[in-house]
Amino acid sequence: MKEIILVKDGELSLKGLNRCNFEDKLVSNIKRRLKSLGTVKITKAQSTIYIEPLDDDFDFEEALERVSCVFGIAGYSRACVCEKTPDDIFSKAPVYLEETLKNVKTFKVEAKRADKTFPLKSPEICMELGGILLDKYPHLSVDVHNPDIVVTVEVRDFAAYVRGNQEKGAGGLPVGTSGKTQVLISGGIDSPVAAWMMAKRGLSLNAIHFASPPYTSVAAEEKVKTLLSKVARYSGTIKLAIVPFTEIQEQIRDKCPEDFFTLIMRRMMMRIACAVSESENCLGLVTGESLGQVASQTLPAIASTDSVCTMPVLRPLIGMDKEEIIKISRAIDAFETSILPYEDCCTVFTPKHPHTRPKAGQCEKAEESLDIDALINRAISGIEYSYID
Ligand code: ATP
Ligand code: MG
Questions:
Q1: 345/245 same-domain check
Q2: Out of 56, 218, 282, 318, which could bridge 277 as a Cys pair, Cβ 3.0 to 4.6 Å?
């Protein structure tokens, strides 16, 4: 029996004239994500996308897993393809749904008839198929209000489709429809979640990570790559820039007042991130900051880092509690990696009493003995790029 995956798009219905672009993007994102599984034919009609595998050994389970991570999808299901005749639908449906129906007690049938020339009307399809299923599976009963499973028959232009319950999709908007940003990624819990949240709103991602060898290790960089690969399951390929940050941190340690170490370090990160972003055509930065979580995440500290930025800084976690962040971290399978105990450059040379409420001009004064432009240029020229997917 021929099987396909049916995908219902999500918020796209809100997008009016842009709808077509959004759908095209969604289709190309699905295509890219399934490419390595074999040849698939993807078509769209009336807010449904049809994914038809053309290879016999197509891995359906893996394909469904990948589809479940594509943003812009409200729901998806496997479905059996039938000829557009009552006979074919009524003979295939009970066989195709056998396994599913064995494990439930109640059901109802719904029918959607896009092709009005089909000989049976929707209520007739429901009645007829309902009767057939009750005969064949006597343990079942019909519950129209709260059934364990809804059996859906869709009669479309070229074929009819029979399916069971639909799975919930990842929601959000297709990645790429909102442009591109660069996420500042550490090895912690927060920044991968922030990246995931912004990808969900349709942004494709670049990433930038600051490494301070020998104070930070190769293992810490590998951890960042692993975390990005978890995000990439949803966002698609991420271009990662690893910036050598040791010289900057040592100079801050040697030349700046200790209570400003963290603030100056963060301002340097932001300046470099903005410069790299511009050269990569990113429209903004994303960080995992959450208000008040640590000394550098007070509003005055954020104001001081924002003041050196030349583009918007998105902070999707700003109003979230750690518990809420961890819930998402677990859901995207990042948490167990995030809690591995590798050092981050933020924990190198941390001041005993970090300044949390810098006043206007104080940071500028504290960093005046640094040759900021030269430091930034040297760091940028040492960047190593890689692609994570
Ligand atoms: P996370 O859990 O994401 O590490 P955090 O709560 O530890 O965040 P900080 O260490 O203050 O907070 O970092 C705040 C944000 O700054 C991070 O979410 C991330 O966006 C960015 N950041 C921190 N360290 C790095 C780094 N080494 N490279 C790139 N960005 C970083
Ligand atoms: Mg951190």
A1: yes
A2: 282
Which long-range contacts (C-beta less than 8 Å, at least 24 apart) are formed by 52-61? 52/4, 52/81, 53/3, 53/4, 60/3, 60/5
- Regarding the beta carbon of 100 and ligand 1, being less than 6 Å apart is answered no
Q: For residue 313, list its beta bridge partners.
A: 285
Cα 172 to middle of ligand 1, angstroms: 25
Ligand 1 in reach of 296 Cβ (< 6 A): yes
Dist. CA 65 → ligand 1 center (Å): 30
Residues 25 and 62 in one domain: yes
Provide the residue-wise pLDDT of the chain in tens; the chain has 389 residues: 899 999 998 765 555 667 778 889 999 999 999 999 999 999 988 778 999 999 988 999 999 999 999 999 999 999 999 999 999 999 999 999 999 999 999 999 999 998 889 999 999 999 999 999 999 999 999 999 999 999 999 999 889 999 999 999 999 999 999 999 999 999 999 999 999 999 999 999 999 999 999 999 999 999 999 999 999 999 999 999 999 999 999 999 999 999 999 999 999 999 999 999 999 999 999 999 999 877 778 898 899 999 999 999 999 999 999 999 999 999 999 999 999 988 887 778 888 888 888 888 899 999 999 999 999 999 999 999 999 99
Is 200 near ligand 1, meaning CB less than 6 Å away? Answer: no
Q: Residue 293 is part of which domain span? A: 180-388
What is the spatial distance between Cα 329 and Cα 293, in angstroms, rounded to a whole number?
17
198 near 180, Cβ under 8 Å? no
> What atom of ligand 1 comes closest to residue 245's alpha carbon?
27
Q: Single out the residue in 120, 146, 171 at which a domain terminates.
A: 171
Q: Please tell me if the CB atom of residue 184 comes closer than 6 angstroms to any atom of ligand 1.
A: yes
* pTM for the model: 0.93
Whether residues 300 and 206 share a domain: the answer is yes
Give the C-alpha separation, 356 to 120, whole Å. 71
